[in-house]
Amino acid sequence: MDTLNALVAFSNFVAIPAVAYGSQLALGALGVTLVYGVLRFSNFAHGDTMAFGAMIVVLLTWLLQSWGVSLGPLPTALLALPVGIIVTAGLLVATDQLVYRFYRKHKSPPVIFLIVSLGVMFIMNGLVRFVIGPGDQRFFDGQRFIVSVREFKAMTGLREGLAIKTTQGLTVVTAVIVVAVLFWFLNKTRTGKSMRAYSDNEDLALLSGINPERVVLVTWLIVAALATVAGALYGLDKSFKPFVYFQLLLPVFASAIVGGLGNPVGAIAGGFVIAFSEVTVTYAWKKVLVYALPDQWEPSGLMQLLTTDYKFAVSFVILVIVLLFRPTGLFRGKAL
Amino acid sequence: MSEPFLIGDSMTGGYGNGPDILHDCTVAVEKGEIAVIVGPNGAGKSTAMKAVFGMLDVRQGAVRLDGEDITNLSPQDRVLKGMGFVPQNNNIFTSMTVEENLEMGAFIRTDDFSETMEQVYHLFPILREKRQQQAGELSGGQRQQVAVGRALMTQPKVLMLDEPTAGVSPIVMDELFDRIIEVARTGIPILMVEQNARQALEIADKGYVLVQGRNAYTGTGQELLADPEVRKSFLGG
Amino acid sequence: MIDRLRAPIFFALVAGALLWTGLNQSWNTALVIFNMGLISAVMSLGVNLQWGIAGLLNVGIMGFVALGGLAAVLIAMPPVKEAWNAGGGAILLGLAIGAASIAIAATAYRRMHKGLLRGLALVVILVGGFYLTRIIATPAIKAVEAINPASTGYLGGLGWPVLIAWPVGGLMAAGAAWVIGKTALGLRSDYLAIATLGISEIIIAVLKNEDWLSRGVKNVIGIPRPLPYEVDLQKDAGFIEQAASLGLDPVTASTLYVKLGYGILFAVVLLILLWLAQNALNSPWGRMMRAIRDNEVAARAMGKNVTARHLQIFVLGSAICGIAGAMMTTLDAQLTPSSYQPLRYTFLIWVMVIVGGSGNNLGAVLGGFLVWFLWVQVEPFGQFLMGVITSPLSDGSFLKEHLQAGAAHMRLLTMGLFLLLMLRFNPKGLIPEK
What we know:
The structure holds 3 protein chains of 3 kinds. Chain A is an all-alpha fold. Chain A contains 13 helices and 2 strands. Helix content of chain B is 37%, strand content 24%. Chain B has helices at residues 45-53, 75-80, 98-105, 114-123, 125-129, 140-152, 170-185, 197-203, 221-226, 228-234, and strands at 6-14, 22-29, 34-38, 57-65, 68-69, 83-86, 158-162, 190-193, 206-211, 214-219. In chain B, the strands form 2 sheets. In chain B, strands 6-7-8-3-9-10 form a 6-stranded mixed β-sheet, with helices on both faces. Chain B has a 4-stranded antiparallel β-sheet with strand order 2-1-4-5, covered by helices on one side. Chains in contact: A-B, A-C.
């Protein structure tokens, strides 16, 4: 039995990847939940919005790299992020003005919005594939690891190694900053409070003189920032491929629903619930158990519940459980 | 006689393209007074209030505030003109704190509204105590106080209440009426719709009894309470 | 008057487009488009039942279509004897145990009182069932997949005529739809959309990864046909003679003969389903469905069991998608799990329903044909357009190559635009609901 090595192996293969993935899901789910809270529909174009934002970041990163600009150990993509957010915000605001506003004026039911968002998804998907192609793109540069396995072993003298990728550290730090800024905005600023008020009670917000068009505009701007950051971080951490972002739609929606649609705290909690479940269920536990259990109990198989091909099934099963037993989600969604 | 401060004058109208619900109906409130609209279920009490606030089409007649014709203004514009409105249902932001509710009430104000908030807390001391609590967690009577407080934050020139005591216990109702009288004492005219006709008329300077969208009886609160016809038909003898 | 002529005019237009393709491109292409158009029309009919008539959002059409495809494999492929001997029984036993543990868990949930004990019992039953399934099935699966993996490596099917797979595909899709409907219906409409999106991704993942069942990404090829093979026809003296009398060479004649044969089979299915759908729509049941769609609250107040009715129509619509999926795999004579893309098999069907006219069965059929035709033809047109646009650019320039390579993705953009314009300016579709 070797608790210390078990713990290190657990952190290396389960905890750290899950925290990074959970942060990415949480950022994505926040975008979905904000649109749901304010515009009151499930935005199926969100995955492709993330893809679009990430694509802009990829293109700008390439441009910066070709100019020889670099951030040293950090990825150059960080420099491209603000511009990516601005371009994505432009796209979302234009989409809102050209597409969604009409249905808002006509007070269309949420299902119609949902179908409209399918059309938007098509267009964004086509746009992304048209510009950058359907293939895998690499745009990561800078130092690969904050802590590498070799360094860790040398430092601690343990048999088991531990690595923290730069992208993982970056993901968590960025997510914490973004979430902190978002919550500060929603809870402390006048505009943020007016968004929450509008989400809570539209009629009363109108009576209080809150301008719905302004609330909607601000919402899209925030959603653009969240989607671009989430998309770029995911792309840095794994790789950028348009179709993968479409597939993220399921875990992202599952996160938002598990937490309670329309509830930002819930979206974050849901993101981590989904990420941890996905990683723990699809991880082969043999390595950890070999350390953690007495020798005679050593497992013979890989101790993997499901192969990673079925990671979507994990989001789905959690989603179904929540729908069956607590459809409002862990944090009772609806208003922001 | 001079014109009342706020008057819905001979209003006829209904929702959208629907049939007329109000027929030549007049309701008004004078400065510094409380006017109540009472009547049986389905008499069009709330509808009359909503007509004054611009939430349905007034096809004939007019609404005037301080002599100015505001018949064609949207509800939002009427708020800007100085009308405060407390709807019957969903009249607070349940997921926000009491203080945030009041802040949202003052959304259109660009000046410092801390003094107004202080006045509201003075009128409704319980709200000061609970100001960091979510409004949705409060009791029915406290929620109504939040709702009235929110409307007061714009420093309205007239306050309109749609059945403020609906669904609260009799003790809470008495307290709410006391608070409403206090608000009126600060000089804000109040026009309200009430289900509990007797208590409402007791505090009313002016009462309107509506039946099927028409004015049936009009008079001071005391007059109506004393009127045998009114007593027989609406106050249960 | 105009309204009554709408359907004939639009259908004539589609027929004209197909004729144009036949005359200008080739009859073979025209028939290929026509056959897939028939299948698309069936899918679109199924989705119209769900969305147009009941207002239910199914975003997992792809999954139901793929289940139909699996049915074609399971029914028509010859069984692999060695594989069955190696572990077929154990796999079935494992699956039965898995199913039983879910059933026991469901019963326990209903019978036991709420509390920690129940939660614990559920976990024990489910986790135990899962492990038992794995212990029994995993070695068997390995054994099955080890048998001649290059050509089989799976259990195969029943070796029955492939036409039987069509209704079976419908039943399999209906089963999956029932499970989803039970969970997500009666909740907010978005939840059904997300749940169906999820189940369709999982069905595809199963097809891709469970080699013992569907050979996974190795694909199942050579599914037996309901029609003669071209090579056999070309050897048939009688056929050659008949072809010659029509002035056709045997090769062309045989391909046209086979495609026409499929066309007739598909058309029969479409017509039967259309007839059933029309009757259902105009029956008291159909009127009730539309009443529920238009005012759910009132329908509930009148004592209608809205959720049960929704479940019914959701299962029916999905079954139709399953039938279409089986037909499609029959036509292709192969199952390629990696070819199932949501944009093609879910969202394109949505475009068909909305463009055709949601709530109108004829509209759905028209949408199936029209949108499929455009989907096929937009690509060459896009390439042509890009060719014209980029002609001033010098050959080999980055922009020119990029634009021309990107032309393939233009169809997504076009379809999305088509959908949005339709929703905005003609939301009732080309043939609106009466």
